[in-house]
Backbone:
């Protein structure tokens, strides 16, 4: 809600940007308490900057972009192959998850390449940052520290040092003496970040911004902050475990929904080159309620274990539905399908679903694996240890094909799984493609792809299922 009034001030919510002419103890939009601060209108006058010239598209020279490697394999892959110069990257995450540690390690790697880095911290003192640097064995003359939350100090430091990279930790602490509002106010935050972006873009400086998150797990501040930057990364992880997941929610230079996996150790974050090893529990004996899927994160296939527990509910008529790492609404849909199509009485059972390793699944190809785990737990059926489930499930109970099938099968074979259950239509397509006449003239890339597919199918038994009714007989075979 934006106000247009002749009054000289208004109140704005720090969390969502809601505006009111009078003070409110509780924000009516985000329902947060004591979050409205007074903003002086006359102090938010727009700064008229130099007007840029219009250019025809055909007169703009295309420049070759050379990405800068951070020497952190998971981060480079997440960014699409490295850092694009003059880009703006926003990193969000819970306190203590490792945002500052990661960016300090990035600074060290860039400093070793001769790059000049300005690290601005509005939350920690120089001594605190130095202690972390000593723990990470980082000591470089190319890393410059500025412990200030003043926008003017940051701008002056950029003018003085002329760095190639600027890190601001965190953006919510930025303040500007031209405004009467406290640091972190929506209007001040929006304006200061916009001015910093204009400075870094014109000078070819790469900008890293660290952002706080709200209790709902979203980045704090205005949504326009995410639109301003080129890349948005979310750092996730349970503080009681050593695994950290870095997810790309927005990427103008690469794939979204890519996931980088790190392990937090005593000497800092260590990239995990083979995430499937973390998310798979290599069991020697069959157990109920377990199924393995191959999910795509960007262009990377990862094998993940799905765990389900179905037990009789002590609460008649109100069973519990708890999902960790999986969408609750999709779980409810799949349970309704099982009740309607297979006549399984889940309405009187508590259902708990967990994605092992802390991964959050958004891939619809996980549907078939979730069904297999639920049926296995409900009927006490032990799934085969060497079977992987791939398929999206529709509302009529049919099993639908999944994308990137060849990449998924390659990961399945690499870990020694010997059987894959997928959609019948996709199974027929694979058989037709395998039996295609190799003597027919085809592009070299297509011949190579068909050859790779034939090699995969020679080592993996592929089974097609038409609907969820035909899945049940395969679970214990």
Residues:
């Amino acid at each position: 809600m934006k106000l247009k009034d002749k009054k000289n001030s208004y109140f704005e919510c720090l969390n969502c940007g809601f505006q009111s002419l009078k003070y409110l103890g509780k924000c009516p939009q985000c329902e947060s308490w004591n979050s409205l601060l007074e903003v002086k209108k006359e102090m938010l006058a727009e700064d008229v900057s130099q007007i840029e010239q219009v250019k025809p598209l055909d007169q703009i020279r295309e420049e070759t972009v050379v990405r800068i490697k951070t020497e952190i394999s998971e981060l480079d892959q997440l960014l699409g192959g490295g850092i694009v110069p003059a880009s703006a990257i926003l990193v969000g995450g819970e306190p203590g998850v490792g945002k500052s540690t990661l960016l300090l390690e990035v600074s060290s790697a860039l400093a070793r390449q001769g790059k000049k880095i300005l690290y601005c911290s509005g939350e920690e003192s120089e001594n605190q940052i130095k202690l972390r640097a000593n723990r990470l064995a980082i000591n470089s003359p190319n890393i410059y520290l500025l412990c200030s939350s003043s926008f003017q100090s940051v701008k002056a430091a950029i003018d003085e040092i002329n760095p190639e990279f600027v890190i601001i930790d965190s953006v919510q602490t930025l303040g500007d003496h031209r405004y009467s509002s406290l640091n972190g106010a929506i209007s001040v935050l929006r304006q200061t970040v916009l001015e910093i972006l204009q400075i870094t873009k014109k000078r070819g400086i790469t900008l890293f911004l660290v952002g706080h998150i709200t209790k709902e797990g979203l980045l704090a501040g205005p949504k326009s902050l995410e639109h301003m930057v080129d890349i948005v990364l979310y750092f996730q992880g349970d503080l009681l475990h050593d695994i950290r997941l870095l997810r790309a929610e927005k990427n103008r230079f690469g794939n979204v929904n890519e996931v980088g996996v790190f392990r937090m150790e005593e000497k800092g974050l260590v990239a995990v080159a083979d995430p499937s090893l973390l998310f798979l529990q290599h069991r020697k004996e069959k157990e109920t309620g377990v199924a393995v899927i191959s999910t795509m994160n960007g262009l990377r296939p990862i094998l993940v274990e799905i765990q389900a527990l179905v037990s009789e509910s002590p609460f008649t008529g109100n069973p519990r539905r708890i999902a960790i790492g999986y969408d609750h609404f999709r779980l409810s849909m799949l349970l309704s399908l099982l009740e309607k199509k297979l006549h399984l009485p889940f309405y009187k059972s508590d259902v708990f679903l967990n994605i092992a390793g802390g991964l959050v699944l958004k891939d619809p190809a996980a549907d078939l694996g979730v069904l297999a785990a639920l049926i296995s737990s409900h009927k006490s059926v032990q799934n085969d240890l060497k079977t992987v489930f791939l398929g999206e499930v529709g509302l009529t109970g049919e099993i639908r094909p999944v994308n990137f099938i060849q990449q998924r099968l390659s990961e399945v074979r690499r870990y020694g799984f010997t059987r894959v259950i997928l959609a019948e239509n996709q199974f027929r397509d694979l058989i037709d493609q395998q039996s295609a006449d190799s003597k027919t003239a085809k592009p070299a890339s297509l011949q190579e792809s068909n050859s790779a597919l034939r090699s995969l199918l020679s080592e993996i038994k592929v089974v097609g299922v038409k609907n969820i009714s035909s899945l049940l007989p395969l679970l214990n075979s």
Remarks:
- The chain is about 30% helix and 25% strand.
- The mean pLDDT is 86.
